[in-house]
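User: Sequence recovery, please. Input:
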């Protein structure tokens, strides 16, 4: 996955959100657990407070005492973290666990029988959770008011909370892995329509389809509709432009034919200089007209175009072999009859016609035409046994109007037109002089349905 992809950004945002949510959940659950443990401790302290109150009595001297202390053994172990204390105006009773310490209670006004909860400092400054109650004693116990408190080390809450957090982490980690995986699956499923849209666009570009269609979710369908409308508008614009170019070219062709007649008449009258000048200008105009006609005939926007290569080669060779140059050449052709190229038949005939005419004009005796294919492309090779051209001049030969032979015949556009046709259909034209003569290598995409036509 690429770092700048939408999938990565969505996945990263989802993963960060999940991790943040789990961290907040861990904090919240730990705080809730801490509050719960503290409430449980306070509830237990209230029970022990009642036990202290229930155990109040008097000794043989009539002094207040705790005749029956709570049963928890921690009350008897010095500085155990669990303490009780009974304070009166005249005496202070306390658990053995307090040893010689005293619980310092805050100034607090307690209604008779009401229970208050505090955090106070205990022995050695340890934080304690304290529950206290003020009670008025009966006459038999002195009829005074006592303040009874039971306290426990608050660190017990922190220890329990930490243990809870440690136990919670593996489960939250497992939950995080599951949620991140679920987020990735959700993103994958959610972006699948975009993948389908890309595949449809690829089919349109390669000619398998001419429109995207409607098989998309509601959120993607408007985009597909707009793209189809754009494709239709583009086709209409190309058709209009092609029609205008063809009209212009055909409109110029008739005056050029008239000029050709005038040139011949001037030559017959001896006006050779004027005739050659007009012929040069007319030749330039004819090259542009031929070029526009060739471009106007291209139909590279037709996604259903398909041509059997062998049939087109045979048809073009049959025509060129009857020309003066072609009649003097020996022709060798070899092409699989099942090869089907994704190109308009007229475009292929136009391109191969230019290449084969060029080979017939420059060959010494033999013109060889062959065709081969792989999974994606079909290549037609037109080779002559002529003098060839220097490698440094190949680019000139493929350029507009490029001529290397100095011969008056031809327009110098044959190779350039063939190259443009190949490029219009997603192919290419290459020239090879490595084995003597000149080999024109014309490559176009193979039809998607290949041999099934």
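Assistant: Recovered sequence (453 residues):
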């Amino acid at each position: 996955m690429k770092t700048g992809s939408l999938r990565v950004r969505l996945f990263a945002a989802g993963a960060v959100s999940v991790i943040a949510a789990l961290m907040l959940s861990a904090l919240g659950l730990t705080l809730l657990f801490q509050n719960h443990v503290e409430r449980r401790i306070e509830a237990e302290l209230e029970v022990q407070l009642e036990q202290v109150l229930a155990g109040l009595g008097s000794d043989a001297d009539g002094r207040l005492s705790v005749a029956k202390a709570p049963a928890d053994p921690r009350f008897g172990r010095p500085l155990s973290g669990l303490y009780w204390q009974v304070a009166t105006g005249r005496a202070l009773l306390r658990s053995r666990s307090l040893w010689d310490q005293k619980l310092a209670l805050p100034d607090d006004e307690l209604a008779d029988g009401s229970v208050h909860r505090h955090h106070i400092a205990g022995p050695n400054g340890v934080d304690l959770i304290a529950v206290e109650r003020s009670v008025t004693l009966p006459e038999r116990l002195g009829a005074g008011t006592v303040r009874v408190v039971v306290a426990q080390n608050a660190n017990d809450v922190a220890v329990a909370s930490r243990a809870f957090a440690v136990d919670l982490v593996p489960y939250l980690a497992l939950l995080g892995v599951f949620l991140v995986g679920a987020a990735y699956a959700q993103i994958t499923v959610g972006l699948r329509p975009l993948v389908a849209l890309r595949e449809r666009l690829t089919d349109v570009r390669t000619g398998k389809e001419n429109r995207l269609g409607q098989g998309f979710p509601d959120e993607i369908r408007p985009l597909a509709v707009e793209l189809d409308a754009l494709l239709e508008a583009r086709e209409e614009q190309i058709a209009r432009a092609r029609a205008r170019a063809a009209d212009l070219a055909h409109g110029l062709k008739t005056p050029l034919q008239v000029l050709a007649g005038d040139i011949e008449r001037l030559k017959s009258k001896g006006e050779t200089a004027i005739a050659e000048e007009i012929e040069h200008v007319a030749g330039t105009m004819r090259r542009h007209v031929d070029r526009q006609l060739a471009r106007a005939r291209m139909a590279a926007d037709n996604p259903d175009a398909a041509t059997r290569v062998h049939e087109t080669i045979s048809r073009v060779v049959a025509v060129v072999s009857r020309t003066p140059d072609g009649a003097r050449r020996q022709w060798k052709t070899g092409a699989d009859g099942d090869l089907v190229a994704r190109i308009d038949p007229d475009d292929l005939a136009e391109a191969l016609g230019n290449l084969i005419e060029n080979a017939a004009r420059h060959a010494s005796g033999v013109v060889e035409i062959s065709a081969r294919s792989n999974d994606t492309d079909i290549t037609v090779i037109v080779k002559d046994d002529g003098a060839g051209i220097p490698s440094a001049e190949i680019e000139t030969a493929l350029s507009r109007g490029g001529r290397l032979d100095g011969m008056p015949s031809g327009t110098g556009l044959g190779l350039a037109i063939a190259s443009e046709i190949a490029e219009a259909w997603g192919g290419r034209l290459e020239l090879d002089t490595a084995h003597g003569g000149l080999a024109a290598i014309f490559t176009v995409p193979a039809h998607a349905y290949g041999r099934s036509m």
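The chain has nine helices and 14 strands.
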